[in-house]
């Protein structure tokens, strides 16, 4: 699932989230395959066309405009209309959607792998997901109460989430090693700027709930439709499978044997640790800034907004720079580690910052690290993904757990660290929290150095 929208960290969507033509100009040196990836039938050995790359970038951009806009602004506006003063409902709504994705992800990924149609395996899921996504936007726009609003969000997770998931699975199916870093960097850039466009569109339509949801959705429909119609996928009706699906077999798709796929396991663990540290760092940003600057939480909103704007450029610098360089130098692991170290350096700088200037420096440094880690780690994931020919959807979905579990668990653990050394006046130990967050991300980067099949 690699970077589903539900997995996008508050301070930096990427993500996670991340085609044959001519032979690649550069390939990684042959090494022992320790991940069970198929040989001749693995992802294409030829470079993808520019058309595929740009439609992939635009497709993911469109999904994020359609899908992240509700998280960023539209859901909050509708909830304030339906249940004034009950902001906690937003957590219930978004949490329910994330839970549904966790429960259905590997199942839907497996079904995508086994789909046999004239349109191929991935495009039918994009088409149905897009239609369901549009229905979800209408449901949220017209919801008469918070329960229906939440149901609409769950439909959005299932619909737009499947579109994004199958776009990313298509990358696993078709991208050669020599282009994975570049494409991951470009899609990372697209998903950074997409929420800004979505918020601008929705912000001008707050008086019309239907247009506030549907106009960003139209952007998603346009670009996904272009991808579906212009990017050919091979007819999958002739595919055969050794095993039939049963309840037991489906449940087995939610787990994997780390000993059988050691490199995939290491990348999964590295991503889990990085996003655990990231979530510890970002969950309490507004409260930390207010505490450090000695002002009410409401007064730090302009600072966080400004940081968000500059953070887009910082994250994009890390994503595109790291992605392109990792392809050019034929190295992944060192850039993943560098991204983790940059994040940790920024987190520690922020933790120790005595004024606004160093808060900015620390925050922007973490953004560069997030961008670099997310883009190159996505390319590394595609390099080591097991059974690419038959089970790419399943393993991409399992990868989503490496982001969704930390996002669910870290906020519950953070108060333990905040309480250590807390003062009687109520001051929390944000310094310790940020230092621990940085240390965890570095461990995540170090874990990736143990990957054997990719340099």
How would you characterize the overall build of this protein?
- Residues 1-41 are annotated as: Disordered.
- The chain crosses the membrane at residues 51-77, 89-112, 124-142, 148-171, 183-205, 211-231, 268-291, 303-325, 334-353, 359-385, 397-420, 432-451.
- The chain has helices at 50-82, 88-113, 123-142, 146-174, 177-203, 209-230, 247-252, 262-282, 285-293, 301-328, 333-352, 356-384, 388-419, 430-448.
- The protein is built from 14 helices and no strands.
- It is mostly helical.
- The longest helix is centred in the first third of the chain and has 33 residues, at 50-82.
Topology:
Elements: H1 50-82, H2 88-113, H3 123-142, H4 146-174, H5 177-203, H6 209-230, H7 247-252, H8 262-282, H9 285-293, H10 301-328, H11 333-352, H12 356-384, H13 388-419, H14 430-448
Helix pairs in contact: 1-4, 1-5, 1-6, 2-4, 2-13, 3-4, 3-6, 4-13, 5-6, 5-10, 5-12, 8-12, 8-13, 8-14, 10-12, 11-12, 11-14
Protein name: Na+/melibiose symporter
Subcellular location: Cell membrane
Biased composition (Pro residues): 12-27
């Amino acid at each position: 699932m690699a970077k589903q929208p539900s997995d996008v960290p508050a301070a930096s969507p990427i993500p996670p989230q991340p085609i044959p033509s001519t032979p690649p100009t550069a390939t990684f040196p042959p090494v022992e395959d320790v991940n069970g990836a198929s040989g001749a039938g693995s992802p294409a050995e030829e470079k993808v066309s520019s058309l595929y790359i740009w439609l992939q970038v635009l497709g993911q951009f469109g999904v994020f405009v359609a899908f992240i806009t509700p998280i960023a602004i539209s859901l909050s506006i509708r909830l304030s209309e339906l249940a004034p003063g009950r902001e906690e409902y937003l957590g219930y709504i978004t949490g329910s959607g994330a839970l549904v994705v966790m429960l259905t992800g590997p199942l839907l990924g497996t079904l995508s792998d086994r789909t046999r149609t004239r349109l191929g395996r991935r495009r039918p899921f994009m088409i149905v997901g897009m239609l369901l996504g549009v229905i979800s936007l209408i449901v949220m726009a017209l919801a008469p109460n918070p329960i229906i609003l939440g149901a609409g969000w769950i439909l959005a997770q299932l619909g737009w989430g499947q579109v994004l998931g199958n776009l990313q699975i298509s990358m696993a199916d078709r991208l050669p090693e020599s282009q994975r870093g570049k494409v991951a960097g470009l899609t990372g850039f697209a998903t950074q700027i997409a929420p800004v466009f979505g918020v601008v569109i929705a912000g001008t339509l707050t008086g019309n709930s239907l247009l506030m949801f549907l106009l960003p959705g139209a952007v998603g429909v346009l670009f996904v439709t272009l991808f579906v119609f212009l990017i050919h996928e091979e007819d999958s009706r002739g595919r055969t499978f050794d095993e039939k699906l049963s309840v037991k077999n489906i449940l087995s798709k939610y787990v994997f044997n780390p000993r059988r796929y050691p490199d995939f396991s290491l990348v999964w663990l590295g991503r889990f640790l990085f996003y655990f540290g990231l979530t510890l760092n970002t969950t309490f940003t507004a409260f930390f800034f207010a505490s450090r600057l000695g002002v009410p939480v409401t007064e730090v909103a302009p600072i966080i907004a400004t940081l968000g704007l500059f953070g887009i450029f910082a994250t994009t610098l890390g994503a595109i720079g790291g992605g392109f360089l990792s392809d050019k130098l034929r190295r992944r692991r060192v850039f993943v580690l560098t991204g983790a170290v940059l994040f940790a350096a920024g987190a520690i700088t922020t933790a120790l910052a005595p004024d606004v200037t160093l808060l900015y420096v620390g925050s922007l440094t973490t953004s560069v690290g997030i961008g670099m880690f997310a883009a190159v780690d996505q390319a590394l994931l595609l390099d080591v993904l097991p059974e690419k020919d038959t089970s790419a959807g399943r393993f991409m979905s399992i990868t989503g757990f490496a982001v969704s579990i930390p996002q669910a668990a870290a906020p519950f653990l953070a108060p333990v660290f905040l309480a250590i050394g807390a003062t009687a006046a109520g001051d929390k130990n944000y310094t310790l929290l940020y230092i621990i967050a940085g240390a965890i991300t570095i461990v995540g980067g170090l874990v990736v150095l143990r990957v054997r099949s990719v340099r």
